[in-house]
Amino acid sequence: MSAPPRRIAHLDMDAFYASVELLRYPQLRGQAVVIGGRSIDAPRQLADGAWVYTRLRDYTGRGVITTATYEARALGVGSAMGLMKAARLAPDAVLLPVDFDAYRHYSRLFKAAVRAIAPRLEDRGIDEIYLDLTEIPGDTRALAQHLKDAVRAATGLSCSIGVTPNKLLAKICSDLDKPDGLTVLGMDDIPARIWPLPVRKINGIGPKASEKLSALGIHTIGELAACAPLWLQGHFGRSYGAWLHEAAHGRDERPVVTESEPKSVSRETTFERDLHARQDRAELSAIFTRLCERVAEDLARKKLRGRTIGIKLRYDDFSTVTRDLTLPEATADAAVIRRAAGECLRRVPLARRLRLLGVRVGHLVGEDADAHAAPPAQADLPF
Fold it and tell me: How far apart are the first and last CA of the chain?
């Protein structure tokens, strides 16, 4: 008896961070709202009940947008865009601070609701998952709607879902009818629904590959599908060229991976202004310590420890350096991480001002695999 055809879903929360904030501030629904501000940008309620909001035009600094409502996106504002640039495009948009604790809470809620229906789940981040629905009985569209309804009941939020024979197509289809979309697609639908799309819609074709394809006169997935495999391999290399051909025809055999061990846990922050190791030592020290504490909290929550402690610095000229140190035993202790990261810090030049600071813990093991490492000897650290 042959195996049933695969039904793979990609579920993507709609403008996730912004949607969580609109649960808190429902009066902002339908407005251009940008998430990416600081705590000082939080709305204030006056004695008469009126609300005062920070507008993008009032922002000064070098922060970037985490996400935005669809109304803001219609004005040309998008994720990873600098807030100062966004202010020129949408000066009246409301700016709200980022609240990752709230986003993680709602992430856990929607994944638990989905897992109760479809337990074969691959976690791809805070707001998206893959699901293998192959063995779950019932009509595909009805099942997808059941998943969407469960997410809304658990969180009050909408999601978009694409159900197709594989992960590559499901990822594309979850984006076709956003927001609150539901797209079911078979291999026979590829010429009509997939081939007219830009090549960049394929997950795995980045800006450089898209630019090169454009220079070769290839703009749509259909045009890519029409290219000979050997021609693609001649321009893009044997492996990537072969993959481009397969992807353009919607072929992808990757399984839904229900369990995966993280390779590392990290935290980083970009400063509102460039900081100097000597002149801003106290501020940098506090930030550095808090990053180490948050990494330790993440490790504890995931029941993990790690042996390799690393740092990442980005200077005011945008150059980046990393250093790491491997301990004799794994740890999840904030003080141990702080001291080891401080040792790494002593091995990098600190004459230039800093834009970004990050801390990472790698070589992870379960929390019961090792005892805590002894802290490195106290040194005269830069901050």
Answer: 66
Q: What is the CATH number of the domain that holds 113?
A: 3.30.70.270
**Tokens found for residue 332:** 């999840």
pLDDT tens for 167-220 read: 999 999 999 999 999 999 999 999 999 999 999 999 989 888 899 999 999 999
pTM assigned to the model? 0.69
**223 and 186, same structural domain?**
no
Residues 20 and 42 in one domain: yes
Residue 247 near residue 168 (C-beta atoms within 8 A): yes
Residue 344 counted as domain residue: yes
Look up the CATH number of the domain holding residue 21: 3.40.1170.60
Q: pLDDT tens for residues 234-248?
A: 999 999 999 999 999
User: Which entry of 21, 71, 128, 268 is annotated as an active-site residue?
Assistant: 128
Question: How far is C-alpha 60 from the geometric centre of its chain's CA atoms?
Answer: 25
| β-bridge pairing 320-331 and 264-275 | unpaired
Q: Does residue 3 lie in a domain region?
A: no
- Our answer to whether residue 135 is catalytic in this structure is no
The residues, ordered by sequence, that sit 6+ positions from 34 with a Cβ below 8 Å of its Cβ are 18, 56, 65, 68, 69, 72, 77, 83, 86, 90, 93, 94, 95, 96
Question: Domain range spanning residue 239?
Answer: 195-248
Name, in order, each residue with C-beta under 8 angstroms of 239's C-beta and a sequence gap of 6 or more: none
CA angle 191, 193, 195 (to 5 degrees): 50
